[in-house]
User: Which sequence fits this backbone?
Protein backbone atom coordinates (compact mmCIF):
# COMPACT_ATOMS: atom_id res chain seq x y z
CA UNK A 1 0.00 0.00 0.00
CA UNK A 2 2.84 2.39 0.91
CA UNK A 3 4.50 1.67 -2.44
CA UNK A 4 1.31 2.74 -4.27
CA UNK A 5 0.90 5.97 -2.27
CA UNK A 6 4.49 7.17 -2.74
CA UNK A 7 4.29 7.71 -6.54
CA UNK A 8 1.02 9.62 -6.11
CA UNK A 9 2.50 11.90 -3.44
CA UNK A 10 5.58 12.44 -5.58
CA UNK A 11 3.45 13.32 -8.62
CA UNK A 12 1.36 15.82 -6.63
CA UNK A 13 4.48 17.47 -5.19
CA UNK A 14 6.12 17.76 -8.61
CA UNK A 15 2.92 19.13 -10.15
CA UNK A 16 2.73 21.81 -7.47
CA UNK A 17 6.36 22.74 -8.07
CA UNK A 18 5.86 23.00 -11.84
CA UNK A 19 2.75 25.16 -11.44
CA UNK A 20 4.51 27.43 -8.99
CA UNK A 21 7.41 27.94 -11.39
CA UNK A 22 5.60 28.42 -14.65
CA UNK A 23 2.41 30.31 -13.67
CA UNK A 24 3.12 34.03 -13.08
CA UNK A 25 2.26 35.39 -9.63
CA UNK A 26 -1.12 37.08 -9.40
CA UNK A 27 0.27 40.38 -8.15
CA UNK A 28 1.77 41.15 -11.55
CA UNK A 29 -0.25 38.90 -13.86
CA UNK A 30 -3.83 39.55 -12.78
CA UNK A 31 -5.89 40.39 -15.87
CA UNK A 32 -8.33 42.50 -13.83
CA UNK A 33 -7.78 46.25 -14.32
CA UNK A 34 -10.81 47.62 -12.53
CA UNK A 35 -8.90 49.08 -9.58
CA UNK A 36 -5.37 49.35 -10.96
CA UNK A 37 -4.23 46.60 -8.60
CA UNK A 38 -1.04 44.62 -9.02
CA UNK A 39 1.96 45.97 -10.91
CA UNK A 40 2.17 47.91 -14.16
CA UNK A 41 5.35 48.42 -16.15
CA UNK A 42 6.68 51.27 -18.31
CA UNK A 43 9.77 50.45 -20.30
CA UNK A 44 11.63 49.96 -23.54
CA UNK A 45 12.17 46.79 -25.56
CA UNK A 46 13.73 44.99 -22.56
CA UNK A 47 10.42 45.47 -20.73
CA UNK A 48 8.45 44.55 -23.84
CA UNK A 49 10.02 41.07 -23.56
CA UNK A 50 7.86 40.49 -20.46
CA UNK A 51 4.70 40.44 -22.56
CA UNK A 52 6.45 38.91 -25.58
CA UNK A 53 7.16 35.77 -23.52
CA UNK A 54 3.80 35.84 -21.74
CA UNK A 55 5.26 36.53 -18.30
CA UNK A 56 3.12 39.66 -17.91
CA UNK A 57 -0.27 40.30 -19.51
CA UNK A 58 0.04 42.80 -22.35
CA UNK A 59 -2.24 45.46 -20.90
CA UNK A 60 0.11 45.79 -17.92
CA UNK A 61 3.22 46.42 -20.01
CA UNK A 62 3.47 49.90 -21.48
CA UNK A 63 5.99 50.34 -24.28
CA UNK A 64 5.95 52.61 -27.29
CA UNK A 65 5.00 52.09 -30.90
CA UNK A 66 7.61 49.66 -32.21
CA UNK A 67 7.74 47.94 -28.80
CA UNK A 68 10.32 50.29 -27.32
CA UNK A 69 10.79 53.74 -25.79
CA UNK A 70 13.75 56.08 -26.04
CA UNK A 71 14.66 58.69 -23.46
CA UNK A 72 14.30 61.71 -25.73
CA UNK A 73 11.15 63.68 -24.87
CA UNK A 74 10.01 60.66 -22.86
CA UNK A 75 7.35 62.50 -20.85
CA UNK A 76 5.42 63.19 -24.07
CA UNK A 77 5.73 59.69 -25.51
CA UNK A 78 2.81 57.42 -26.36
CA UNK A 79 2.36 53.81 -25.33
CA UNK A 80 1.10 51.18 -27.77
CA UNK A 81 -2.07 49.16 -27.13
CA UNK A 82 -3.36 46.14 -29.01
CA UNK A 83 -7.04 45.94 -29.90
CA UNK A 84 -7.65 43.36 -27.13
CA UNK A 85 -5.86 45.51 -24.54
CA UNK A 86 -7.88 48.54 -25.61
CA UNK A 87 -11.11 46.62 -25.03
CA UNK A 88 -10.10 46.08 -21.40
CA UNK A 89 -9.28 49.77 -21.02
CA UNK A 90 -12.72 50.67 -22.39
CA UNK A 91 -14.28 48.86 -19.43
CA UNK A 92 -12.59 51.20 -16.94
CA UNK A 93 -14.56 53.91 -15.19
CA UNK A 94 -13.83 57.24 -16.80
CA UNK A 95 -12.71 55.78 -20.13
CA UNK A 96 -15.16 58.03 -21.95
CA UNK A 97 -13.14 61.05 -20.88
CA UNK A 98 -10.06 59.57 -22.51
CA UNK A 99 -11.55 58.03 -25.67
CA UNK A 100 -10.65 61.07 -27.76
CA UNK A 101 -7.01 60.70 -26.68
CA UNK A 102 -6.70 57.28 -28.29
CA UNK A 103 -4.94 57.30 -31.65
CA UNK A 104 -4.91 54.51 -34.23
CA UNK A 105 -1.41 53.46 -35.32
CA UNK A 106 -1.67 50.78 -38.01
CA UNK A 107 -3.28 47.70 -36.45
CA UNK A 108 -2.69 49.04 -32.93
CA UNK A 109 -3.71 52.02 -30.82
CA UNK A 110 -1.78 54.44 -28.67
CA UNK A 111 -2.21 56.98 -25.90
CA UNK A 112 0.15 59.21 -23.98
CA UNK A 113 1.85 57.76 -20.91
CA UNK A 114 0.28 60.43 -18.71
CA UNK A 115 -3.19 59.67 -20.07
CA UNK A 116 -2.71 55.96 -19.39
CA UNK A 117 -1.65 56.58 -15.78
CA UNK A 118 -4.54 59.01 -15.27
CA UNK A 119 -7.02 56.46 -16.63
CA UNK A 120 -5.74 53.31 -14.92
CA UNK A 121 -4.26 54.94 -11.79
CA UNK A 122 -2.00 51.93 -11.11
CA UNK A 123 -1.31 51.10 -7.49
CA UNK A 124 2.26 50.16 -8.38
CA UNK A 125 4.14 51.40 -11.45
CA UNK A 126 7.63 50.14 -12.26
CA UNK A 127 9.66 52.32 -14.64
CA UNK A 128 12.62 50.69 -16.42
CA UNK A 129 14.08 53.13 -18.91
CA UNK A 130 17.44 54.32 -20.14
CA UNK A 131 19.00 51.55 -22.22
CA UNK A 132 18.10 53.69 -25.24
CA UNK A 133 20.01 56.83 -24.39
CA UNK A 134 22.45 56.11 -21.57
CA UNK A 135 25.39 55.58 -23.96
CA UNK A 136 24.85 58.74 -26.01
CA UNK A 137 22.98 61.30 -23.89
CA UNK A 138 24.74 63.72 -21.61
CA UNK A 139 24.13 63.18 -17.89
CA UNK A 140 22.29 66.51 -17.79
CA UNK A 141 19.91 65.49 -20.60
CA UNK A 142 19.31 62.06 -19.12
CA UNK A 143 18.55 63.58 -15.72
CA UNK A 144 16.22 66.20 -17.20
CA UNK A 145 14.21 63.79 -19.35
CA UNK A 146 13.81 61.23 -16.57
CA UNK A 147 12.79 63.96 -14.10
CA UNK A 148 10.13 65.28 -16.47
CA UNK A 149 8.65 61.79 -16.81
CA UNK A 150 8.53 61.26 -13.04
CA UNK A 151 6.85 64.62 -12.48
CA UNK A 152 4.34 64.00 -15.27
CA UNK A 153 3.38 60.58 -13.89
CA UNK A 154 3.10 61.92 -10.34
CA UNK A 155 0.84 64.74 -11.52
CA UNK A 156 -1.40 62.40 -13.52
CA UNK A 157 -1.96 59.87 -10.71
CA UNK A 158 -1.11 60.99 -7.19
CA UNK A 159 -2.15 57.64 -5.68
CA UNK A 160 0.33 55.60 -7.73
CA UNK A 161 3.40 54.22 -5.97
CA UNK A 162 6.28 54.66 -8.41
CA UNK A 163 9.28 52.35 -8.49
CA UNK A 164 12.40 53.37 -10.42
CA UNK A 165 14.05 50.21 -11.64
CA UNK A 166 17.69 50.07 -12.66
CA UNK A 167 18.62 49.41 -16.27
CA UNK A 168 19.42 45.72 -16.74
CA UNK A 169 23.03 44.62 -17.32
CA UNK A 170 24.12 43.63 -20.82
CA UNK A 171 26.44 40.90 -22.05
CA UNK A 172 30.01 41.60 -23.16
CA UNK A 173 29.00 41.05 -26.79
CA UNK A 174 26.73 44.10 -26.72
CA UNK A 175 28.10 46.81 -29.02
CA UNK A 176 25.31 49.37 -28.60
CA UNK A 177 25.80 49.93 -24.88
CA UNK A 178 28.22 48.76 -22.20
CA UNK A 179 27.73 48.07 -18.51
CA UNK A 180 29.90 51.06 -17.62
CA UNK A 181 27.34 53.30 -19.40
CA UNK A 182 24.53 51.55 -17.59
CA UNK A 183 26.11 51.91 -14.17
CA UNK A 184 26.53 55.66 -14.67
CA UNK A 185 22.88 55.95 -15.70
CA UNK A 186 21.74 53.78 -12.78
CA UNK A 187 23.52 56.14 -10.39
CA UNK A 188 21.40 58.97 -11.81
CA UNK A 189 18.21 56.90 -11.52
CA UNK A 190 19.03 56.05 -7.90
CA UNK A 191 19.61 59.75 -7.14
CA UNK A 192 16.23 60.59 -8.67
CA UNK A 193 14.55 57.98 -6.48
CA UNK A 194 16.07 59.71 -3.45
CA UNK A 195 15.14 63.19 -4.68
CA UNK A 196 11.49 62.32 -5.31
CA UNK A 197 11.30 59.88 -2.36
CA UNK A 198 10.49 56.93 -4.59
CA UNK A 199 11.48 53.29 -4.31
CA UNK A 200 14.58 52.16 -6.21
CA UNK A 201 14.87 48.55 -7.42
CA UNK A 202 18.42 47.36 -8.05
CA UNK A 203 17.77 44.73 -10.70
CA UNK A 204 21.25 45.37 -12.12
CA UNK A 205 23.05 43.99 -9.06
CA UNK A 206 20.60 41.10 -8.78
CA UNK A 207 21.15 40.01 -12.38
CA UNK A 208 24.91 40.40 -12.24
CA UNK A 209 24.93 37.35 -9.97
CA UNK A 210 23.94 35.23 -12.98
CA UNK A 211 27.27 35.05 -14.78
CA UNK A 212 29.29 32.29 -16.45
CA UNK A 213 32.85 31.21 -15.64
CA UNK A 214 34.20 34.14 -17.67
CA UNK A 215 32.19 36.70 -15.74
CA UNK A 216 29.83 37.33 -18.66
CA UNK A 217 26.05 37.19 -18.38
CA UNK A 218 24.73 33.63 -18.43
CA UNK A 219 23.22 32.83 -21.84
CA UNK A 220 20.44 30.89 -20.12
CA UNK A 221 18.93 34.20 -19.04
CA UNK A 222 20.42 36.57 -21.63
CA UNK A 223 20.52 34.69 -24.90
CA UNK A 224 19.97 37.35 -27.58
CA UNK A 225 22.73 37.99 -30.07
CA UNK A 226 22.66 41.71 -29.32
CA UNK A 227 23.50 40.94 -25.69
CA UNK A 228 20.70 43.20 -24.44
CA UNK A 229 17.38 41.32 -24.49
CA UNK A 230 16.67 38.62 -21.93
CA UNK A 231 15.27 35.15 -22.51
CA UNK A 232 11.92 33.88 -21.20
CA UNK A 233 13.75 32.43 -18.20
CA UNK A 234 15.54 35.73 -17.62
CA UNK A 235 12.30 37.69 -17.81
CA UNK A 236 10.69 35.37 -15.26
CA UNK A 237 13.63 35.89 -12.88
CA UNK A 238 13.41 39.66 -13.30
CA UNK A 239 9.66 39.82 -12.73
CA UNK A 240 9.83 37.59 -9.67
CA UNK A 241 12.55 39.82 -8.23
CA UNK A 242 10.56 42.97 -8.96
CA UNK A 243 7.48 41.46 -7.36
CA UNK A 244 9.43 40.69 -4.20
CA UNK A 245 10.77 44.26 -4.04
CA UNK A 246 7.31 45.76 -4.59
CA UNK A 247 5.79 43.53 -1.91
CA UNK A 248 8.52 44.54 0.55
CA UNK A 249 7.89 48.22 -0.11
CA UNK A 250 4.16 47.73 0.42
CA UNK A 251 4.70 45.95 3.70
Assistant:
Amino acid sequence: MKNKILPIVTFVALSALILTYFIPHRVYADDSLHDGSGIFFIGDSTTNSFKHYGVISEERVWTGVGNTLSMWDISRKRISLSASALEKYKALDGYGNFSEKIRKDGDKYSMKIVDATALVRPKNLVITLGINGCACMSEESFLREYSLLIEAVMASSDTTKIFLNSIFPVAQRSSAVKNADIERANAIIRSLAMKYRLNYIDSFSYLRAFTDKNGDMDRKILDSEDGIHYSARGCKLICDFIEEEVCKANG
In short: The beta strands are 39-43, 61-62, 78-81, 103-105, 108-112, 124-128, 161-165, 199-201. Residues 25-249 form a domain with the Rossmann fold fold (CATH 3.40.50.1110). The radius of gyration is 19 Å. The longest strand covers residues 39-43.
